[in-house]
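Predict structure. Chain length: 254.
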Amino acid sequence: METLIRRAASLLASAHRLVILTGAGMSKESGIPTFREAQDGLWASYDPQQLATPQGFRANPKLVWEWYQYRLGLVEQAEPHAGHLAVAALEERARGAVVITQNVDGLHARAGSRDVLELHGSIRRFKCLRGHRGMSMDDLAGQEGTPPLCPRPGCGALVRPDVVWFGEQLDHVVIQRAFVESEACDVMLIVGTSGVVHPAASLPYQAWNRRARIIEVNPVPSELTDLAHVFLQGPAGQVLPNVLTAVDDQRTVR
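Prediction complete.
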């Protein structure tokens, strides 16, 4: 493992453009359950189509709002782990770096990452059905109703979480930049993703096709492991701090 960590650190230390792609495994290490894992207790009887689709929201907006408030409560209890902090440190040390995440919890930003592309949106942000975006819970304070109505003057449309639901398109600006960054990078670090959810799962192939070096950190092999030039098996919170230390050691030697 030490040899693999040194090899990964060498690639990261020499990277000119670094992309760090993260998935649900990162959040799970902070104690945040996946979508289906959160469907326990009174939520166990509901189909995802009822809780995370535009059709489900139109049919029962109160139910969907309460489901996402429950999930937001789980996120608010969580803290960034050592892997999140190591990602932020690697981003800071790299000449050019961007974090692309499939997670909606905002933990990368809380850990100090500055350039984060949230492919699936953020559970901490809200938008209304008329397209007003960028609202926080503070902006919705005092609004009556479940879900609340948009506080923008003259609007009053229903407010929903600013996440990408099943059947919805990703924000075209975000995904377009994600592809541009993936095609331009010379090193991609993949952390905690299964590699089965598209279009995020396509990004490593874009990088690999442009001859980028691929490093993967995962507890178990994924659908992307065959692309990896270095595969580091283990949880991000344990592996990434060791990688960061090795990167700093190599930078000191140089």
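Summary: The radius of gyration is 19 Å.
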